[in-house]
Amino acid sequence: MKSIDNKFETIIKGKIDQFELPYDHTDWLAFEKMLPKVAPSASAFSTFGKIASLITAAAVVATLAIFYFQPQSNNTSISQNSETIQNIETQTPGSPQPENSITPATINDRSNASKVEEKTASNKISNKIETEQTRNATKIEVSPEAKDETTENNRKVKETVTIPVDLPNAEFQISTLSACALSGITFIPVEISKKRIYLWSFGDGSISTSASPVHSYKVAGRYTISLEVKDSKSGNSAQWEFPDQIIINPKPDASFTSTREVNKFSFNATSSDFVVNKWQITDKQFINMGLISYSFQKSGIYPILHICENQEACTDTVFQELQVEIEHPFLMPNAFSPNGDGYNDFFGPNSDCCADYQFKMFIFNSTGNLLFESNSPDDKWNGLISGYNKMAEPGVYVYKVITTDKYGNTQIKQGSIYLKND
Questions:
Q1: What domain range includes position 189?
Q2: 238 and 288 in one domain?
C-alpha cells in the first residue's frame, strides 16, 4: 500500500511541476496533516481516503495555479471547481455516492484521463497567458482627457480646413479707354463691398480711396491704372494693374473777345487748335464763324457760349455772361441862350431823337423846384418858368429825360445846363 502512496505522490508532484511551481516535501507533509482524519475501520477505505485526500490537495493546488495565471473573468469557474473538491472531501464511507463520485475502480482511468485533461488545460492556460500578454502589449490605453483633446484637435483642424478664405478681387472696369483731357472717366471694381478698403492709383500722381471714383486727366498721354483691395477683417489683399491702356487726347483752347458799338456787339473767336467752332447767343446758334455781330433788343444779362472742336473730336467751351444795357442814342446840349436871336434859343434833345420812344423831360432849379415839364421831344424849354410867364435867371439848371422804347427798355438821362442871357 505504501508503494501505491509513493507512486501517487510522484504523479502529483509531476503534475505540480508541470505548472512550474516549486515543490517542498516539508510543506507537503504539513499540508497532509491538515487533511481530515478518516476512520480506521477498513484498510482499503483508509487507502482510498488517502488517495482522495491527495487528489483533493492536487486539485486545490491546480486551482490556485489556474487562478494565479487566469484573469478575473474566470473566477466563476474556479469557484465551481472548489465546490466540487469540497464535496469530494466531505464524503464519508458508506454514504450515498453522487453521480460524479470517485471510486477505487475508476482511479486509474481517471488518472489517465486527467493526464490528458491537465495537459490540455495547461496548454490552454499557456495559450491564454500568451494571448493576454500579446493583447496587453499591443493595446494602447487612451485616457478620456487625451481622447477629448484629440477630438478637439481634429475638430479644430477640420474647422481650419473648412473655413472659406475671403480673398478680395481687385479686377475693375473703365468707362472708356480713350478720352480727352479734363474729361471724367469712371472706374468700377467688379466687387463692391463695405468690408473692402480700396486704393486707386491713376498714374498721374493722383490716388483715391473711393469704391468707384471718377477721375479726369489734365495732360494728354498714356496712363497705367492700378487698384489694391484689402479685406477690413482678415487683412487679405489683392492688386490688379492696367498698364498704359488709357489714352488721353489733347483739348483745343477756346477763347473770344467782344466789342460794342451802341447796341451792337461783335464777338471774335481767338481759339487755337480747332477745326470746328460754334456760337450760341440767346436762342440762336452760329457755326464756323470766326467773327459774329449781334444786336440785343432788351437790357439784361446774356450768356455767350463758344465751342471749338479739334481733330480728335475733343472739345473746349468758353462761357461768359454779358451785361447789356440798351441805350437810346440822343444828345442833349449843355447850354442855351433864350434871347430871341433865333440861335440856340431852346433846350431839348437833338432833332433825330426819340421818334420811337415815349418821352418825358423835366427842368429843375438848384433847390429842386420844377420849372418846366415836357412829354414830347419837340416841346423844348424856352427859359420861361411854367405858370409864371417869367424868364428864369441866368445860371445852372438840372434836366432829367426819361425815354422808353417799344421793347420796354427805359433810359434815364440827366445832367446840367447853363442858361445865358446875352
A1: 172-249
A2: no
One pLDDT digit (tens) per residue for the chain, 422 residues: 545 556 666 776 666 666 555 556 676 677 667 766 554 444 444 455 556 566 766 666 566 655 554 544 444 433 444 343 344 333 444 444 444 444 444 434 444 444 444 444 444 444 443 444 444 444 444 455 555 555 565 555 445 445 566 789 999 999 999 999 999 999 999 999 999 999 999 999 999 999 999 999 999 999 999 999 999 999 999 999 989 889 999 999 999 999 999 889 999 999 888 889 899 998 888 988 889 999 999 999 999 999 999 999 999 999 999 999 999 888 899 999 998 888 899 999 986 777 788 999 999 999 999 999 999 998 999 999 988 889 999 999 999 999 999 999 999 999 999 999 76
Q: ∠ at Cα 87 (84, 88), nearest 5°?
A: 90
Residues 65, 87: Cα–Cα separation, whole Å: 20
pTM to 2 decimal places: 0.48
Angle value at C-alpha 389, between 387 and 394, nearest 5 degrees: 110
Q: What CATH number does the domain containing 314 carry? A: 2.60.40.10
Same domain, 40 and 100: yes
Is 220 inside any structural domain? Answer: yes
Where b means 16+ CB within 10 Å and e means fewer, 283-296 reads: eeeeeeeeebebeb
Same domain, 28 and 92: yes
Q: Is residue 161 part of a domain?
A: no
The domain tally of the chain equals: 4
Nearest-angstrom CA–CA distance, 21 and 57? 14
Q: Do 376 and 305 belong together in one domain?
A: no
Shared domain for 10 and 87, answered yes or no, is yes
Q: How far apart are CA 60 and CA 58, in angstroms?
A: 5
- Which residues, 6 or more positions from 241, have their beta carbon under 8 angstroms from its beta carbon? 224, 225, 226, 227
Among residues 91, 117, 138, the one where a domain terminates is 138
